[in-house]
Amino acid sequence: METLNKKRVYQIVSALIIFLDIILALIAYPHLPDRVPQHWNMAGEIDGWSSAFQGAFLMPAIMIVLFIMFFFLPKIDPKKKNYSLMDKTYWFLAMAMVIYFCLIHLGSLGIALGYLGDMPGSVTIGIGLLFIILGNYFGKIKPNYFVGIKTPWTLASEDVWNKTHRMAGPYWVGGGLAVAAGGFLPHPWSTIVTIGALSIAVVVPTAYSYLLYRKSNETAE
């Protein structure tokens, strides 16, 4: 029952965040300039712009689609039975994604309206925080096709999945900390740190899952 309650709380909080973001977009839209910042490069510089309408409502639309997808994905996953074992974790991560996109959207509107200056490093710091959150919850993620380290070897063996995610958690937390710290560095060092940290966080667990799977097969033979 506790898991069910927390799951509902995360769903409700996510829905409320999306609703409030839409309200803020409706309020901001009449006051937006013709161009709204929409994309930032690795140096934290604006390198993409959109119309006022797109800047106000594209991100809320993306958040709505993501929120609906989080309900739908467990129904089509071949490993759907495992979602009941990680409901709380799954929906907490969904809520974290919604919060991240909402903050990016609010930052974009704030810059367009003149309330905020440029956000050098802010997007990078946000990505780092997401990696830290994911890394902390890796040990609780059960085998599935949509969340976690989904290599052919982790999906083929629950034991490989569990060991890989337990090993990968500290790498993702460490990588996230490095990326977040890199957000405070000047370009190009911020880009170098970000790419290096994320590469290690992805490549090492992937290679580990392969080696672990091969070793388990050799032992079985």
Overall form:
globular
Major β-sheet, in short?
A: 2 strands, antiparallel
Average pLDDT over all residues: 90
Largest sheet strand order: 1-2
How much strand content do the residues show? under 5%
Unreliable stretches covering 5 or more consecutive residues: none
Helix content: over 70%
Question: Main attributes?
Answer:
221 residues; mainly alpha; 2 domains; two-stranded antiparallel ribbon; 7 helices; 71% helix; globular; membrane
Question: How is this fold's topology laid out?
Answer:
Elements: H1 2-28, E1 36-40, E2 46-50, H2 52-76, H3 87-113, H4 122-137, H5 152-156, H6 158-182, H7 189-220
Antiparallel strand pairs: 1-2
Helix pairs in contact: 1-2, 1-3, 2-3, 3-4, 4-6, 6-7
Organism: Syntrophobotulus glycolicus (strain DSM 8271 / FlGlyR)
Domain DUF1648: 16-64
Keywords: Membrane, Transmembrane, Transmembrane helix
Describe the structure concisely:
The chain is mainly alpha-helical.
Can you tell me about this structure?
- Keywords: Membrane, Transmembrane, Transmembrane helix.
- With 221 residues, the protein is mainly alpha-helical.
- The protein has helices at 2-28, 52-76, 87-113, 122-137, 152-156, 158-182, 189-220, and strands at 36-40, 46-50.
- It folds into two domains: 1-120, no CATH class; 140-221.
- The protein contains seven helices and two strands; from the N terminus they run H-E-E-H-H-H-H-H-H.
- The chain has a two-stranded antiparallel ribbon.
- The radius of gyration is 19 Å and the shape is globular.
- The chain starts with a helix and ends with a helix.
- The model has no long low-confidence stretch (mean pLDDT 90).
